DNA sequence: TAGTTTGTACAGAATAAACTGTACGTAAAA
DNA sequence: TTTTACGTACAGTTTATTCTGTACAAACTA
């Protein structure tokens, strides 16, 4: 019969859930894959996923890799099973917030550092009248980064 | 001389700042454009931007449009100037947070509603043993969305 | 009025991203 | 050992996105 009722419902859920997952910076396929794993009761193999999502095994391999790096998925060992098995990391909310915010803040921080470096260099140079407006803008931007950092830190500690 | 010292510093800042702006879901060019406007002292015309960023005027037009919709840029009127003038909305932090979080939450909310609809439909159907695990997963996912909503609301009210 | 200039719609070109199939290294099975 | 199966590197193809030039409507100028 191809698609059971269960599979049909599963697809409906996946469509919606994937959209939310995408908002956390995952590609559409990564999101669909994660949703699928999350709704599956057992750990799955690359072939399982390939069949279910209708995508190549290669694609599953690379996308699972991304999800592993993001710590959203775990590799599972099972006696007697030769293929690799994967399951979604199920502490959904915390896991997401953690990886997302961490990446976010890390990146923003890096940019803040670069900007402060630029600021330092401008200050060191002799006081050029022409640059005052630029300095002012830079100050605001750095302040913005600082605020970002604080806000998101706040959010993460609970 | 082509590139003055000021322009050089401006570019350095723009490179870093644009990265941060991109994290808020803007495309690279939108981000660069916004950074440029933010650092400019005067409102600018499409031709100004086109020259400065080395992109077509058409591109400036469409990208400015996006920024306007996101409320990150304002159109300015100046007596005697025929061309349209634009400047960055300068309450940087608040403006960003507002538009970003609003879109975010709106989207997540929409997905939550769809998921709850699905949940209702499952419950209405006769109790199928096979679906219990799926129901459980759905419940968690909806809970996740609820939590998202609350967390971000909290963040926005200060 | 006719003649310019400005902003944008649209179609096609250039660029980037996603996806697949083959091919191969490695590890388990026989 | 040989044979079989698994996962992934890599190159090429397909698909989506970004960007540009032309063309034109609307607004301004004289």
Automatic annotation (TrEMBL), chains A, B:
Belongs to the GbsR family. This is HTH-type transcriptional regulator. Pfam families: MarR_2. InterPro entries: ArsR-like_HTH, HTH-GbsR_regulator, HTH_MarR-typ, MJ1563, WH-like_DNA-bd_sf, WH_DNA-bd_sf. It comes from the Bacteria. The keyword Coiled coil applies. One of its GO terms (molecular function) is DNA-binding transcription factor activity. The lineage of its organism: Bacteria, Bacillati, Bacillota, Bacilli, Bacillales. Keywords: Coiled coil, DNA-binding, Transcription, Transcription regulation. Residues 101-135 form a coiled coil. Residues 24-75 form the HTH marR-type domain.
